[in-house]
Design goal:
The complex is a heterodimer of chains A (360) and B (456). Chain A is mainly alpha-helical and 360 residues long. Chain A has one domain: Formate dehydrogenase/DMSO reductase fold (Up-down Bundle). Helices cover 79% and strands 1% of the residues of chain A. Chain A has 15 helices and two strands. Chain A has a two-stranded antiparallel ribbon. In chain A, helix 1 packs across helix 12 and helix 1 packs parallel to helix 14. With 456 residues, chain B is mainly alpha-helical. In chain B, the strands form four sheets. Chain B has a two-stranded antiparallel ribbon with strand order 1-2. In chain B, strand 1 and strand 2 form a beta hairpin. In chain B, helix 8 packs antiparallel against helix 9, helix 9 packs across helix 10 and helix 9 packs across helix 12. The longest helix of chain B is centred in the first third of the chain and has 50 residues. At the A-B interface, helix 2, helix 3, helix 4, helix 5 and helix 14 of A face helix 1, helix 2, helix 3, helix 4 and helix 15 of B. The complex binds CIS-heme D hydroxychlorin gamma-spirolactone (HDD) and protoporphyrin IX containing FE (HEM) (2 copies). CIS-heme D hydroxychlorin gamma-spirolactone binds next to helix 8, helix 9, helix 12 and helix 13 of chain B.
């Protein structure tokens, strides 16, 4: 029971990662497809503005998932990490390239330099979710045996369900990002950009739907245990909800209801992850290790709960504050709150300091 | 060659590749992490000065530093993410049996890091958007989360040096896990203090050295003066404390990890009145080419010439760390620590006599190298701690060779990681130089996390 609770918490973290970091990755992909420096500059600017404020904090969700996994389910964790060494390493390199290229791009002294860093940023945005998706597919299809590098280093992640997982991850990221950015543009009154991302969201949504349609066949052939779980009543309900949310989100974006489509796209994404969880329950590693067998001792699980509550009490209010601030900032960005120069800003600050002092 | 031998050679190579990859990525990360720990407070000092004295130059410094902080934080976060991958990918024999024992501080560090990342975002966005006082005070919880985060992560390393918080059952299984006791292990607090102060020294001296170089180039503007004085003062206060803390850390090892201590001090045989060995190499169980100061090691270690210090002869050969590496690294750290103390003392003396930094060119030349020296000391300190613990990954419990992953391809990934980090390091330095140039030219520069504009 305790172990299930921790797994639910881990899955909440995984969902947050899929959505927040997924939007980041997707933004990187659209950046890649935005065209030459001139044509692409406005969409790129918008993408950067929409993901700028929170992007690096998003790795925290992945770290969170890894740390909770290794603490609550250490044997499963090391089995996965050592068997999936290659895709994990590639995803990790993708994260390094992405994060640093994004941070550095603004500084590149030349246009070529900017282009190289931009390509590194965008390319890594495709590669990282793809490899993480192949890992998910490998785990779900029961290709990770217990032990130190016990699984096959190649076929564990090059197999039908892994490829499906990788491709689906990439398409979903693109979809979520386009929907979120379209919404952002509409709200800021940038109608042409909103239109731009709306059509891209539709395209990605349709591709995603087609890929997802092959899902049942691949799962049936490649991952019988998962298939059994997914076709149970509960499994059908979760998957059905996800499919409905996905369809509804497509329709609402078609109807320019970007705000609604944003919520629905998030639900559809979450539905896939929770469908996987339901389908695989009670297995941690299908047919190899159950959640109960793989769990750490209760003292450890309770400590994890304490850490989770602490995170909720401390980090969540801070995060809300940041989001409120950036929301205001984003709204104001086209009429900067100060006139942009450091001089004006500092004069104003010093004056403000003097003022609040004399008030006190 | 027979297959067994080939296999043994391959797994030996795997072990070296894994250790190298871990050391390299940690050594890279720790520099950036150190900035994350210490920079917010140093920026706070500048910001507070600007606010209370209505001094635009100090505020300007705070604003510039916060931008550098953002870039370093971004690189620190991605290199840290890789570390959490590596813990599982490279060391299943550590994370499998003991992942649950040491997981709690990692989870708590995640909280601390998350809070710090959010607050950095708020601080960068806050210029002119937040009330001035509130905006300044955002740097304080950031400082606290740096303190907390570094404690959590260092406590894991402390646990590897002094495992606690569990028992071993009759069948060799781990029972009675108490993650809180594991976190507050016997090495955690001293290691944390030492690392914390190292972070303040490194950041302080390094930031100051940027302005020392500008000073040497003839720039005597007020902003250069302040940009030097604020961080240099912090580092100068930290330097003497660091030596006291290092002394406590060293004496703790006599009991706790005698093998590490004997290697550090290069003591071949347990004895009283042990000399302090400067330089030298340990060859075939003998110290060669060293300068020995009679009795000083005993005096420093036990506060008495008659104090007995443990020697390498008591350690089974299979349990002996690489003596030369540990000894040299230790001397580098202590040597640099002493040199930085002298530099700080010079500064302090000059300040006491004439309320200003020394005029002598030598002082400014030395100061422009102090930051890099502090980084070298910090890396050397980690080599002492980590290599000195060998052959154990968990002190006297798990051997490193039993913990390593059996996957093939570690050699390839170790090479890849080195090249990528080398490139990353070079680009980081280039970017920081560009930032510095543009800021010195008075441009308002954009940064990741910070507000950006879209032309419409
Ligand atoms: C600016 C950096 C710096 C400076 C000037 C010093 N140290 Fe240090 N030292 C570190 C940075 C560092 C470190 C990198 O932070 C380490 C690695 C692990 C740790 O806890 O701190 C370390 C480890 C470390 C250890 C190993 C602790 C262990 O394994 O448990 C000892 C014995 C000392 N130090 C002793 C000293 C002494 C006697 C110094 C006097 C001059 C000194 N250090 C200066
Ligand atoms: C909490 C913090 C840390 C943890 C959990 C940790 C963990 C590890 C692990 C698992 C290894 C490989 C096994 C071994 O060789 O013992 C290792 C080795 C090493 N680490 Fe650390 N480490 C930490 C901090 C650091 C830092 C910050 C540095 C660097 C500057 C560092 C430097 C090294 C070195 C040099 C080695 C290689 C030792 C050798 O192979 O002989 N460590 N560490
Ligand atoms: C010994 C020294 C270490 C210190 C002082 C330290 C400190 C920090 C700090 C302050 C950050 C925030 C980024 C920044 O400020 O630049 C950070 C990030 C990070 N560190 Fe380290 N770290 C250490 C070692 C490790 C080790 C051994 C691991 C993992 C095994 C690790 C994992 C991470 C991760 C995953 C992040 C980014 C996200 C997060 O913290 O949740 N660090 N670290």
């Amino acid at each position: 029971m305790l172990a299930d609770t921790i797994l639910v918490i881990i899955w909440v973290g995984l969902t947050a990662y899929a959505i927040f970091a997924g939007a980041d990755f997707g933004a990187g992909m659209w950046d890649l497809l935005a065209g030459g420096p001139k044509k692409g500059s406005r969409p790129r600017g918008l993408l950067e503005r929409s993901i700028g404020p929170v992007w690096e904090a998003n790795h925290v969700w992945l770290i969170f998932v890894l740390v909770y996994l290794w603490t609550a389910f250490p044997t499963a964790f090391v089995s996965i990490m050592t068997t999936m060494y290659i895709p994990m390493m590639l995803a990790g390199l993708g994260i390094v390239f992405r994060g640093s290229a994004f941070a550095f791009r603004k500084w590149a002294p030349t246009v070529q330099g900017k282009a190289v860093l931009g390509t590194a940023f965008a390319g890594a945005s495709v590669v990282t979710p793809f490899f993480l998706g192949t890992v998910a597919g490998g785990v779900a299809s029961g290709r990770v045996p217990l032990g130190n590098a016990a699984g096959d280093p190649w076929t564990s992640w090059i197999n039908p369900l892994s490829i499906l997982g990788g491709v689906l991850a990439v398409v979903i990221c693109a979809y979520v990002a386009a929907v979120l950015v379209a919404r952002d543009a509409q709200r800021s009154g940038l109608d042409d950009l909103s239109e731009y991302f709306r059509s891209r969201a539709l395209a990605a949504g349709i591709v995603g739907g087609v890929v997802a349609l092959t899902g049942p066949f691949v799962v049936k052939a490649d991952a019988p245990t998962l298939y059994e779980g997914l076709t149970s009543t509960f499994g059908v309900v979760v998957v059905g909800l996800s499919v409905l949310a996905g369809l509804a989100s497509l329709v609402s974006i078609y109807l320019h209801r970007t705000r609604l489509s944003r919520v629905l796209a998030v639900l559809a994404t979450a539905g896939i992850l929770w469908g996987w969880a339901v389908g695989q329950f009670p297995w941690l590693l299908p047919n190899v290790l159950t959640i109960e067998e793989g769990a750490a001792s209760p003292a450890v699980l309770i400590a994890l709960l304490v850490a989770f509550v602490a995170a909720g009490l401390i980090a969540v209010p801070a995060l809300i504050w940041l989001l409120m601030l950036t929301d205001r900032g984003v709204l104001d960005a086209d009429q900067p709150v100060h006139d942009g120069s450091t001089e004006a800003l500092l004069t104003a600050l010093v004056a403000e300091a003097a003022q609040s002092d004399s008030a006190a | 060659m027979n297959a067994d031998l080939l296999f043994a050679a391959a797994s030996e190579l795997n072990l070296y590749a894994a250790r190298y990859q871990m050391a390299f990525s940690l050594g890279f990360h720790i520099i950036l992490a150190g900035f994350g720990v210490a920079f917010p407070f140093i920026t706070f000092l500048a910001h507070r000065r600007g606010y209370t004295k209505r001094d635009p130059d100090s505020l300007r410094l705070a604003k510039r530093w916060s931008k550098v902080m953002a870039v370093l934080f971004a690189v620190g976060a991605v290199s840290g993410t890789i570390l959490s991958f590596e813990m599982g990918m490279l060391w299943p024999g550590l994370m499998g049996p003991y992942g649950d024992v040491i997981g709690l501080p990692f989870a708590l560090e995640g909280v601390a890091f998350f809070v710090e990342a959010i607050l950095i975002g708020i601080y960068l966005y806050g210029w002119k958007r937040l009330p001035a006082r509130l905006h300044m005070f955002v740097l304080l919880p950031m400082t606290v989360s740096g303190l907390a985060g570094s404690f959590f992560i260092i406590s894991v390393n402390g646990w590897m040096n002094g495992p606690a918080g569990f028992s071993i059952g009759p069948g060799g299984e781990i029972i009675d896990v108490n993650p809180w006791a594991a976190m507050f292990n016997s090495a955690a607090v001293i290691e944390w203090l030492h690392m914390l102060i190292a972070a303040y020294m490194m950041t302080g001296f390094l930031v100051a050295s940027v302005y020392a170089v500008r000073w040497l180039k003839g720039d005597r503007s007020r902003i250069v003066r302040l940009g030097f004085l604020i961080p240099f003062t912090v580092a100068s206060i930290a330097a003497p404390i660091q030596i006291l803390v290092g002394d406590v850390a060293a004496r703790r090892l006599i009991e706790a990890q005698p093998a590490k201590f004997a290697a550090m001090e290069m003591i071949p045989e347990t004895r009283t009145n042990a000399p302090l060995t400067l330089g030298g190499l340990y060859v075939d169980g003998e110290v060669r080419w060293a300068v020995e100061i009679p009795g000083l090691a005993s005096l420093l270690g036990t506060r008495s010439l008659d104090g007995e210090l443990p020697g390498l002869n008591e350690i089974p050969v299979a349990d002996t760390p690489p003596v030369n590496v540990v000894h040299i690294a230790f001397q580098v750290m202590v040597g640099i620590g002493t040199a930085l103390l002298l530099l700080a003392a010079w500064f302090g003396w000059s300040w006491w006599r004439r309320r200003g930094p020394p005029e002598a060119k030598l002082f400014w030349v030395a100061s422009s190298f102090a930051g890099v020296a502090a980084i070298v000391a910090l890396e050397a300190g980690w080599i002492v701690t980590e290599v000195g613990r060998q052959p154990w990954i968990v002190w006297q419990l798990v051997r490193t060779k039993d913990a390593v992953s059996l996957s093939t391809g570690i050699v390839a990934s170790a090479i890849t990681i080195s090249l990528v980090y080398l490139g990353l390091g070079i680009v980081t330095i280039i970017v920081l130089r560009i930032i510095a140039k543009r800021m010195a030219a008075g441009e308002d520069v954009e940064i990741p996390y910070g507000p950006s504009k879209v032309e419409s």
